Amino acid sequence: MNTSVTLAGVTFKNPVMECSGTFGSGMEYSEFVDLNRLGAVVTKGVANVPWAGNPTPRVVETPSGMLNAIGLQNPGIDVFCERDIPFLKQYDTKIIVNVCGKSTEDYIEVVERLAQEKVDMLEINISCPNVKEGGIAFGQNPKAAFDITQAVKKVAKQPVIMKLSPNVTDITEMARAVEMGGADAVSLINTITGMKIDINRRTFALANKTGGMSGPCVRPVAVRMVYQVAQAVKIPIIGMGGITCASDALEFILAGASAVAVGTANFANPNATVEVVEGIEAYMEKYGVSDIKELIGAVR
Questions:
Q1: d(C-alpha 96, C-alpha 122), whole Å
Q2: Are the C-beta atoms of 261 and 18 separated by less than 8 Å?
Q3: Are 12 and 39 in contact (CB under 8 A)?
Q4: Tell me, what DSSP letter sits at residue 134?
Q5: Are strands 203-204 and 197-198 parallel, antiparallel or unpaired?
């Protein structure tokens, strides 16, 4: 039974990883999870300088999910290279570094620094607000998405995954834009913008007012978007959004994702990723599937 998948020339032992920002950089979860069982570890977003993130409160539960407005708090690329990469290199898993920035120059600085590091792929978070364009996310404008992809590809030494925002009118337009810009793969979806009001305090539940909604509540939207993108582009897709178990993950794979990422579920169940790996293996055995590639995009 073969569970390995290859994305942009990088072969993963299985198609399961976790979503950036839900697992730290693996260190916090390594006490609970055997990182060797995962196809890859996706790091928390890394910027060129330390980011403090947003003021608190910045996480709130919602029905079947949560809202977060962490603001991509991170210690910056220097600490990441000195501390996190050596830690992850101890494990038999691929390393995908999530990169964030507030301008094209920010992204380029991090990507150039990572060119010298032994990491396998880069995931570019284009849901960050572009400060030079008045705060609109790079991932909400096709031209901006194309431009940032092209700029990153010029300096990247590793294959580039562009992480797409669902907060757009047409997700396929964004996917085509980054494919044209040279992206090696896409990951989707990032969180959906939402809001919660505290009726007793008569104020916003999050200090930032809005936050990114994730968890099972977004899964049907995410599966639909993955399916649409699979029909629109030729590059591989990493599907994510509300995956809690193997059956959820298999929906994404059947819709056209070559790999899947588990996010919010990690907070309630640190072993969720390994359970998804084992569940996919059990499904393949049950239905006599010898190679997971038979399942990718099997629903047309």
A1: 5
A2: yes
A3: yes
A4: T
A5: antiparallel
Instruction: Write phi, then psi, for 282 (nearest 5 degrees).
Output: -65, -40
**29 CB-side CA count, 13 A:** 33
Q: What is the pLDDT of residue 131?
A: 62
Catalytic residue among 19, 100, 128, 217: 128
Longest dimension (CA), the chain: 56
Per-residue pLDDT at 136: 75
45 Cβ neighbours under 8 A, 6+ residues apart: 20, 21, 72, 74, 98, 99, 100, 125
Pinpoint the alpha helices (H) of 126-181.
142-155, 171-180
Strand order in the sheet with 192-195: 59-62, 65-68, 210-214, 192-195
d(CA 121, CA 128) in angstroms, rounded, equals 19
Q: Is 217 an annotated catalytic residue?
A: no
For the stretch 107-163, pLDDT in tens is: 999 999 999 999 999 999 998 767 677 667 899 999 999 999 999 999 999 999 999
Q: How far apart are CA 95 and CA 93, in angstroms?
A: 7
- Kind of pairing between the strands at 237-240 and 185-188: parallel
How much is the mean pLDDT over the chain?
96
State the residue for tokens 């964004």: 174
pLDDT at 132: 72
Domains of the chain, earliest start first = 5-294 (3.20.20.70)
Over the stretch 46-94, which tens digit does the pLDDT of each residue have? 999 999 999 999 999 999 999 999 999 999 999 999 999 999 999 999 9
